[in-house]
Amino acid sequence: HEAYLGDTLAAIAREKAGVLRRARVTVLGPMGAEPRRAIAADAAEIGARLSDAASDTEVRPRADRPSQVDLVTPVGTYRRLRPLPGVHQRANLAVAVRLLEEARAAGLAVDLGAVARGVARTRWPGRLQRIAGRPPLLLDGAHNPAGARALAEELRDQPPFVLVFGAMADKDVGEMGRILFPLARQVVITQVSEARAASPDEVARRVGRAAAGARREPRVLSALAQARRLAGPRGLVVVAGSLYLVGDVLRSAAARRRGSKPRK
Questions:
Q1: Model confidence over 197-220: pLDDT tens digits?
Q2: Looking at the structure, do residues 201 and 251 belong to the same domain, yes or no?
Q3: How many domains would you assign to the chain?
Q4: Rounded to whole angstroms, how far apart are CA atoms 224 and 137?
């Protein structure tokens, strides 16, 4: 969304800082020094207060349950929380809990005792979402370089996979592809049915050498079928690059479950 927010981290941070309010608390997550300075300057100017979840919380992975963590905050300790998949989601969990704590301190009726239940019931479709099958699918929007890097960290522990990739032309397609393509056994580039979508040829051109050997199939469902064949029943298909693409695949998966024919 650089066309609206700005093309530097400081400019984007200043735009996001529009949510700051005098004497109110805004909870910050991990970020670089440049955007942090921009937000701090705006906060000082209008008299807003900042709470830094990155420095005032501690996320402790549990040895007995690798998928669970204990979260220590200035208010208390929350045990056996189950974050969304992905190491980066632990930081997001800390921000969410600190936000609830600050809301309660401001007078809102927040039951902090329900945090563990709420976290356990949280679902985020299209973010490291797994769909069972032969082969199974792993779906992740990963529509910017930061998202691609977070996905890449998760993929390093996965078996060899085939990547189905499609993205919007106004995204940093080249950088995203250079992060993800080298990790895949094979790549199938496709095109989402949106006006802003980049064609497979454009994606390959912008990614450069990392796209050498990538297959190009503009029809999403045909690209997915091709990736399934390449992966084989014991393999893995990863779909990434656009939430629109993930949406198309989710609709296809729902149609398969219903036994109806998905749209092309």
A1: 999 999 999 999 999 999 999 999
A2: yes
A3: 2
A4: 10
Question: Coil, strand or helix: which one is 229?
Answer: helix
CB contact set of 194 (below 8 Å; sequence gap of 6+):
168, 244
| Domain encompassing residue 142 | 129-258
Boundary residue ending a domain (78, 103, 120) = 120
Residues 91 and 197 in one domain: no
Q: Is 61 helix (H, G, I), strand (E, B) or coil?
A: strand
Q: What is the pTM of this model?
A: 0.81
Q: Are strands 237-240 and 25-28 parallel, antiparallel or unpaired?
A: unpaired
Tens of pLDDT, residues 54-91: 999 999 999 998 889 999 999 999 999 999 888 888 99
The pair of structure tokens assigned to 156 is 């390093």
Instruction: State pLDDT tens for residues 155-181.
Output: 988 889 999 999 999 999 999 999 999
What's the rounded Cα separation, in Å, for the pair 238 and 18? 36
- Please check whether residues 188 and 102 belong to one and the same domain: no
